[in-house]
Amino acid sequence: MPFLSSAHHGLKKRVQDLVDKMIAPHAQEIEGAHEFPQRAYKAFSREKLFALSMPKAYGGPEADALSLALMVETISTVSPSSALLVFPTNAVLRTIALTGNSEQKDRLFAELRAGDQPMGFCLTEPDHGSDAGSLETRAERVGDHYIVSGTKSYITLGQHARYYLTFVRTGPGPKAAGISALLISRDSEGLDFGPPEKKMGLHGSITSQMYMDKVKVPVANRLWGEGEGWRVLTEVANPMRVWGAASMSLGTAQGLFNLALKHASTTKSNGRHLISQQAISFLLAEMQMRIEASRSLNYRACALLDRGGAHPREIETLVSMAKCYASDTAMQVAEMAGKVMGEAMADGNSLAARLFCVAKGIQIFDGSNQVQRLIIARNLSYTKDVADTGS
Ligand SMILES: Cc1cc2nc3c(=O)[nH]c(=O)nc-3n(C[C@H](O)[C@H](O)[C@H](O)COP(=O)(O)OP(=O)(O)OC[C@H]3O[C@@H](n4cnc5c(N)ncnc54)[C@H](O)[C@@H]3O)c2cc1C
Questions:
Q1: Does ligand 1 come within 6 angstroms of the Cβ of 253?
Q2: Are 338 and 183 in contact (CB under 8 A)?
């Protein structure tokens, strides 16, 4: 693959070996149980996957976007819920690396260097999902602290994270203008979590409401300035969905393809293996073609991020395309896998059925696919100007 260096291949193999040994044999159980995936947590901690994006200056490997994408994709081929341990965690770590001041990096990275601490990302509220700019969680400044009250919903990792990157309202607005980004420690007084949500898929990923009742957060835990939280979100955090949600989708689609191919190669109908029926082999060919197209777009978007210097709107457009295309592809592949597998997918406990539901979930989260289309459409004039000037 043209985008991958030998270091990328090395990392991919390392994660693949770990997945084959430690995750794949238990994937069905992890994806089916509404429980924190302890086994995956321990395996990832041992391999320090929680700290893959830790900067080199602080003793980490400072993985680039493409490396993070390979990790998330590889884990998601069998257990997207397990990928949701390391995806928000590395997103928060990378956000600290890109926006934190030296005191924050010295303090936080010293604590997180061991690579065994999950991190949460808290934007959505019960009344504000896609319209995140209207969020209502309040943070009043009192001396060198903020007093934070409000509710966040659908928070991946629930109570299991060490810190929560939380977007709060510190000023009157309008809308995004009054938003700040705070890191809230798990042991803060007044912080509590609801029971795990009963989602249609991703059962092995705990998702909960997060309640903040006068939680005291040091001003020293604010990333960038007061009122600059929206920039932290849009300029720094949002592009990470290319190695997050997009790579999860890609892995999920690949996992569904692998299951469908195995089923078609081992199951007979009218005395012949299913794969020898043209209608079935065409379905598999279609699945593989779409997955490869999605992979090319995804890796290209990662390479653009890693190269640096691209215009923010070019990055925004390509990242939105990669997330939207990859999760729509995963859903299409899921439907085609159902045609190949029949009953083997209709069994609600099968891994194929679990992955089918995951594909639907990723179309919704990390910015729904309608919202990604809005972003792409908003940038159409920019994309056209670039094409016209050839720049
Ligand atoms: C498994 C899972 C994990 C999650 N983890 C986290 C997490 O860790 N942290 C976090 O902060 N959030 C998380 N979320 C929340 C997720 O990001 C939101 O669900 C998502 O942003 C959509 O918000 P909503 O569900 O409130 O839908 P709404 O915003 O209410 O939208 C409903 C529907 O309307 C469409 N829509 C909305 N506005 C427009 C528009 N202007 N034009 C066209 N269509 C529109 C949407 O696409 C959607 O299909 C998670 C969600 C899921 C399912």
A1: no
A2: no
Spatial distance between the Cα atoms of 233 and 229, rounded to a whole number of angstroms:
6
Among 76, 154, 159, 374, residue to substitute to test ligand 1 (most atoms within 8 Å of Cβ): 154
Residue nearest to atom 23 of ligand 1 (CA): 129
Pocket test for ligand 1, best of 86, 124, 355, 374 (most atoms within 8 A of CB): 124
What distance in Å separates the CA atoms of residue 328 and residue 359, rounded to the nearest whole number? 8
In the structure, what pLDDT confidence band is assigned to residue 388 with cuts at 50, 70 and 90?
Answer: low
Q: Extract the runs of DSSP E, i.e. beta strands, from 75-144.
A: 119-122, 138-142
**Residue 391 pLDDT exceeds 50:** no
- Is residue 311 scored above 70 in pLDDT? yes
**Per-residue pLDDT tens over the stretch 10-54:** 999 999 999 999 999 999 999 999 999 999 999 999 999 999 999
The residues that bridge with 140 in the sheet, in sequence order, are 147
pLDDT in tens, 190-201: 999 999 999 999
Output the CA 123–ligand 1 centroid distance in Å. 10
Among the listed residues 207, 225, 150, the one whose alpha carbon sits nearest the alpha carbon of residue 184: 150
Confirm or reject: Cβ of 202 under 6 Å from ligand 1: yes
